[in-house]
Amino acid sequence: MKILVTGGAGFIGSHIVEALVRRGHRVRVIDNFFSGHRGNLAAVKADVEILRGDCADPAAARRSVRGIEAVFHEGAIPSVARSVAEPLRCHRANGTATLTMLLAARDAGVRRFIYASSSSVYGDTPTLPKRETMEPRPLSPYAAEKLSGEHYLRIFHRLFGLETLSLRYFNIFGPRQDPSSPYSGVISRFTTALLAGQTPVIYGDGQQSRDFTYVGNVVDANLRALTARGLDGEPVNVAAGRRVVLRALLSALARELGRPDEARHEPARAGDVKHSLADVSRARRLLGYRPRWDLEGGLKKTTAWYRESHRLRDRRSG
Ligand code: UD1
Fold this sequence. Notes:
Layout: E1 2-6, H1 11-22, E2 26-31, E3 48-52, H2 58-65, E4 70-73, H3 80-85, H4 87-108, E5 112-118, H5 141-160, E6 163-169, E7 172-173, H6 186-195, E8 201-203, E9 209-210, E10 213-214, H7 215-227, E11 236-238, E12 244-245, H8 246-257, E13 264-266, H9 281-287, H10 295-317
Parallel strand pairs: 1-2, 1-4, 2-3, 4-5, 5-6, 6-11, 7-10, 8-13
Antiparallel strand pairs: 9-12
Bound molecules: uridine-diphosphate-N-acetylglucosamine (UD1).
Uridine-diphosphate-N-acetylglucosamine binds at residues 78-80, 118-120, 169-172, 185-186, 189, 201-203, 208, 210, 246, 269, 272-273, 276.
């Protein structure tokens, strides 16, 4: 099948691209290289067509979907905190870009459109675990942008018959997650701080909890979404289905890396959700999805990867 992955040079996108290439699909990537890197595609670069372009630019979007049967829309600026600081810029990358890609896909006759949504759309729902039938209550511009994308997908399914699916990712981590921005995912931040001999920062009391999900599970859910029957435009949770308190996560990482288990506390971030845990039964029913990697297994692979990149960087600069 001829497939487009937006944000394909990014953390999650590049893992999806690799898996698609391994299965013999023809893959095109569109990426603006805002947070993606060509190096993320090093293993498959001979087999992938790479377009530099911005998904919010209609001309680039139209070019990217020519001849394409299915789209994985992973391109985004994925940060709650950054969306609080820079809402318009994030809206363009997360909201406008999604609508622009949907329009381009519809006009090019794309059959299926799979979208990287986010657990943040739930906000602080009073009940755990979070189910797709609960009313979303976004707490940040990021969550509102991701939710608007879900609505557009549902509408494009109803109005134009595009086969759409929104996958609500719950705190994804793994190799290649970029740790370099203060807005980067917490596992990448903690791991690289520990490796550099620095004290990780915890925003708030550290008692917030997350359903941290290894990137391999996300790839698996996306591959299943490519062929699943009965897509009705409604969203699906993708998660490990287990909740871990942030302070305990830091202890586990410090143990794994043999570093002191210490943290510096700063005030909680605006827009932050307190607790997050998914019910993955709809994903099981619709996609046959089961989390194949648990937190411990995922952390081992991830810390090994950061250790190796840290060693290579040291060797280059030494
Ligand atoms: C949110 C979404 C997630 C989405 C992600 C965008 C929720 C529950 N989750 O993640 O599905 O994929 O946005 O990428 O809304 N923290 C620290 N120290 C740090 C960095 C972060 O204490 O150095 C804290 C944050 O304040 C937060 C937690 O760790 O409480 C997780 O933060 P982060 O990894 O940025 O992800 P979320 O904002 O939870």
